[in-house]
Amino acid sequence: MFIDVHVHPAFYEPIRADAARQDARHELLGLYHNGTAPLEHVFNQMSCAGLDRLCLLAQDYSADSAAVVSNEEVARLVGLAPNRFIGIASIDPFAPGCLEKLERAFTEHRLRGLKLHPGRQGFYPPDPRLDPVYALCERHDRPVIFHSGLSLEPDSLAKYSRPAEFEELAYRHPKLRICLAHFGWPWVQEAAMLMLKYRNVYADTALLYFDSAKEFYARVFTRDLEITWIDRSLRHQVMFGSDNPRFEQIRMARALGELGLRESSLELIKGVNAAEFLGGID
Amino acid sequence: MTKHASITLLTKRYNEFVLITERVEEALRESGIQEGLVAVISQHTTTGIAVNESLECLESDLGLFLERLVPEDLPYSHARILPSYGSTAGNPTGHLKSHITGNSALFPVVGGKMLRGSAQDIYLCEFDGPAQRTINLVITGD
After folding, report:
1. Inter-chain touch B132–A41, beta carbons under 8 Å
2. Is A215 in contact with B75 (Cβ distance < 8 A)?
3. N or C: which end of chain A has fewer CB within 10 A?
């Protein structure tokens, strides 16, 4: 089982919206040349990458704009391909009714986790205003994927999502599984630090900020970090993610396989860890 | 008289040769043009339009020939984030193969049919798939 835990479906054909909302999606995401992708194309891409499942992330910044991709839209996509898609909810934690929205996402829409973007939504992860959100996730045994490190989205600040900012949250909520998306780049050693100490902290590999996938993965995972750190110590907490369509899903999947990890570590990173993080795969 | 048409298709692989001869002929028939020219032009910069013999062995040879000329793992300048796209440009090899292959083909139209040799077929060459691709056709004549 090969799972990409970090995919944004804003430009998938079944949820294509009117021109104004499509334009807003481009602007809010800072992705300016994405055409609409028929699901058949998405499946072709999965096949080329060798992927079995994609986690589709909703994105809700509704405190100051419309949801980029709503929980309902993600649920609709999952309904079209339940054997390929896993839905992840989103709320704006400062929008009225956000807890009810999240409850509905977990119960009615059966979404499997929550995505939050501290840098875009303007909060530090241990902010007590988020405690009810985290409590709800714990009550439903749902994990949280946090954007961490640099974000290329407009109006987002990296200061909120530096990995070290997550320590208090990991410490205070040891039963809450959290993922530092993008491995917290450029602070990948801080991310590794947290993962070493807190077993409820995961990270995904959705990072391709310079160079080719092969070059950048080699840089981050064999020089900024030692590959042995992943292969020996963190292998149960790293998950494959691509941040597609911003980054290159197929080439990143290939680059992961060329890092020199043990086959058993690759199996964990490709899917076993994601299944555990998500609390099981249907 | 000039008629415009297009072919849209989904490619399935990273590098792939997709035969489009029949779809061009179909568009030509629908145009009603009997004498003139048909131009086949890709709308993309990581595809090519090629004319060659439709044989599995040749497709393999052509693919390997391009791979030797344009290896995947060289340090290409185009491997970077493009601010105007907001995404990575991981496809330098596609652009280079497209550059080598060219993006168009031209055939005479005689008696309502493309005048082509018995070994000549038209390919869309995919160099950065899978993707949705559009090929524009311009059929001009009488």
Report:
1. yes
2. yes
3. C
